[in-house]
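User: I'm writing a tutorial on reading structure tokens. Could you give me a worked example: one chain, its sequence, then its tokens, then a sentence or two explaining what the tokens reveal?
Assistant: Sure. Here is the example chain.
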Amino acid sequence: MITLSQLNSLSEQKLFMLLEQCCVSKTWVNSIIESRPFSSENELIKKAASIWYNDCTIEDFEEAFTGHPKIGNVDSLKEKFSHTAEWAENEQSKMAEANVETIEALAEANKFYEDRFGYIFIVSASGKSADEMLAIINSRLKNQRDDEIYVAMNEQHKITVIRLVKLIEGLSANADLSSHLTTHALDTSIGSPAKHMLITLKGLRKNQWKPMSVGITNTDGRISDVLPPGRFLSPGVYSMTFDTANYYKNNNQKGFYPEASIQFEVTDGSHYHIPLLINPFGYSTYRGS
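And here are its predicted structure tokens:
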């Protein structure tokens, strides 16, 4: 772990090796180095996102993906980037709780994913169970190749920020690491959070709705990292689609609406919270806080 002051003063060679633990895209790493000095942790977080989303190309995204193991296979990373393997292993720690059937299903889905898109499945695995990651990969396998790259690059930057927090002392305390967009689903028919529900954020690209981020609600019915820290939506109209069909199926219920899609307008950089109240025969929403 290093301080922000040390990040500003380390040699380029030493800092390159440290930043490569967070993201192996040479464009991203070199641009961070060239952007020094940073006056605050917040400035670093904002610049890290700006470089990733504005300066990096699809080739840079795909290069960054090579710095991760396939889900459940950290040994593959030890051979290539040994200095990132320990962090990857910790991020996938909940894989140890998975049963054999889930692990085998994930392995098969990983193979389909790589064959379909040309790179490994990238997901911010911290805090996610194997079953949740299996649900996410099966959902993302439905995406078109030109669209999935944008979902994967969002996940990549979530991982980058998680690793920057591990690298830089005081980053989590001194920087705003909140997501521009959050969501919360409540099942009013049972008076409980709607947990393990898939949610897709979509934006308009070439006048068509395209996926930007795919997440799954936690045991409290929340997704707190729809977007990575420092990533702000441009003003415009967006949509969040809640997969109610599979949620009801997994809870042995029958619902009338197979999905709930909520459109909303972003006008500025303030926090946007999009909650959903559902029951098998209806749903409602409001501007949350």
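What the tokens reveal: The first strand starts at residue 181 and ends at 187. The beta strands are 181-187, 192-193, 198-205, 208-216, 222-223, 236-242, 260-266, 272-279, 282-285.
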